[in-house]
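Request: Mind sharing a record?
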Amino acid sequence: MRKYFDEIRQIAGNVVTVNATGVGYDELAVIQSKYGESLAQVIRLSGQQVSVQVFAGSQGVSNTDRVRFLQRPMQVPFSEDLLGRVLDGSGRPRDGRSEVTGKMIEIGTPAANPVRRRMPDQMVHTGIPMIDVFNSLVESQKLPIFSVAGEPYNELLARIGLQADAEVIILGGMGLRHDDYLNFRQAFEGGGVLGRAIMFIHTAADPVVECLMIPDLCLAVGEQFALQGKRVLVLLTDMTAFADALKEISIIMEQIPSNRGYPGDLYTQMARRYEKAIDFDGAGSMTILACVTMPGDDVTHPVPDNTGYITEGQFYLRGGRIEPFGSLSRLKQQVNGKTRDDHRAIMDACIQLYALCRESREKRDMGFEMSDWDRKLLRYGTLFEQRIMDLSVNIHLFDALDRCWEILGECFEPAETGIRRSIIEQHWPKQDGKPEPEPQPAQAEA
C-alpha cells in the first residue's frame, strides 16, 4: 500500500520540506503535482520534518501536492550496455538513445573495507612525460589537478582518457559548458575510446542537485567494473563545481556556514568520494583523477585545501604546463623503481637542474653577469620545456627517458649532471661519429 504525505511546510529553491514519518536519509521520493511527478532525495531529517531536494527543480510544486517515499536510495542500472553511453546527473540518457537496463545498484555506498585493498604497485601510463617520468600515476591512486580558469585542464583530462592504459574510462562532468561537453565527446569519439567509455554529464544549465549526483554515479559504476576485474579510470571535472553545489544547498537549508560559506562537512563530503579509489585484492582497480579549479589561484581556498589532505599528491597546471615544483605523486616510489634502472636518477637530476635554471634566469633578469655554467643551465631549461614539459609532447615512458638523456648530453658533461657513474656509463647518449666522453666521478649521487 502506497503512503502519501501532503503536509508540505516550506519550498525554498529546490528544497521541499514536508512532515513525514518512517523516512531514511538519502531515500528517494516522488512529488505528485498537477504537472506530473518529480523525483527528489532526502537530504535532511529533523524530527518529523523531512527536507528533500527536487532533481528537476521545484518549479510547479505547491504546498497542496503529495509526497511519496520510495523506501530506497538512488540507484543506477549497471550492465555492459553502459559502455559508449552518455547520461545525465539522474542517470537518464543524454545521447538520444534508449534507457539503459541492467542490475540496479545503489550509489553513495561506503568505501570498501581496507582489508580488501591491495598495496598499489602498478603504473598507469599516460604518454605525458611530466606525469609518467616525474610524478607517475599509480593504479587505485586519487590525484587532483589544481588549476585556474582558462587553463586547459579539460583538454588534459580528455587526453589522459584517450591515452591511459585503462580498460574502462568514466568521465564525470560537473558544471560543464555545453561546448566543453561536446569537446569531451568528440575527443573520445575521434580517439576511438568511446566504446569503452561512460560519460555522466552535468552542464551549467542543469539542476544543481544533479551536480551532486555525478561523482556517486561514476564511482558506483566504476566500482562494479573493478569488481569484475577491470582497470577503471574515473575522470572528474570540476570538483569545485561539486563543492559549490554543496554550498548552494547548505545555504538554502540555512545551515551554519564554515570557511567562505562552505558547509562544515565539506571535507567529509569530498573524502566520501575520493576514498572510493581502490585496488581490489583478486579483482580490478579504480583510479581517480579529478580537476580542482582554484578561485584566484589560491591554494588555501577551502576546496583545494581540503582536497590536499585527502588525496595522495597533486598536479599543478599553470601556463599550459604541469609544473614540476609543487606537483607530487606520493605513490610514485611504488612503481618508478620497476620501470627502468635510470628512471629515478633521471627524475631527480632533471628536476634539480631545472631548479638551478630557474635561479640562473633570475640572475639574468636582474642583470647579473652570466657564467658558462649559467648559460648551460639556460639552454637546458629551454630544451627541457620544449621537449618534455610541453603538453603537446606525446611519447612512451622509455622514449621520454631517452629524450631526457639526449637533452642532458646536449647541454652538460656527464660529471655535471650529478648522476651515478654506473648509470651514466649505461645510458649516456652516444655522439654521432665521436667516441663517448669518459665519465668523471659524479659531483653528487642522486
Notes: Residues 343-427 form one domain. The chain has three domains: 4-73, 76-333, 343-427.
